[in-house]
Amino acid sequence: MKLSPYHESEGRCVSALHQSTGYSFSLTWVKSKDGEEFELLYRVLSLGTLERVALGWMMDEIMFSTSMCPIFFERISRVIK
Q1: Of 27, 54, 73, 76, which is least packed with CB atoms within 10 Å of its CB?
Q2: Cross-strand pairs, 44
Q3: Strand order from edge to edge, sheet including 11-18
């Protein structure tokens, strides 16, 4: 997976591209509602060839805590294998 950092008005971002499938998404660091911690906002950019096998959550915008990153990437890796 190729990762590329960039900056948006919402905050710092990283885009991820799985080159063999074309699946890509962005993760944006945003302040939580209480303003004390940062959370990650997932947005799909392209499902590529995973369109037919992608799980429902892969198409949604998702906000999650940084402590959930290992679980997030584990679930993605199950689909792109």
Answers
A1: 73
A2: 25
A3: 2-8, 11-18, 23-31, 38-46, 62-65
Q: Give the Å distances, CA to CA, from 22 to 26, 32, 39, 79, 80.
A: 13, 30, 26, 13, 10
Q: Which domain holds residue 45?
A: 2-80
> For the domain that residue 70 is a member of, what is the CATH number?
3.90.1150.80
Q: Is pLDDT above 90 for 11?
A: no
Please state the pTM of the whole predicted model: 0.87
- CB 81: neighbour CB atoms within 10 A? 5
Give the three-state DSSP class for 77. Answer: helix
First-to-last alpha carbon distance for the chain, in angstroms, is 12
In the chain, the number of structural domains is 1
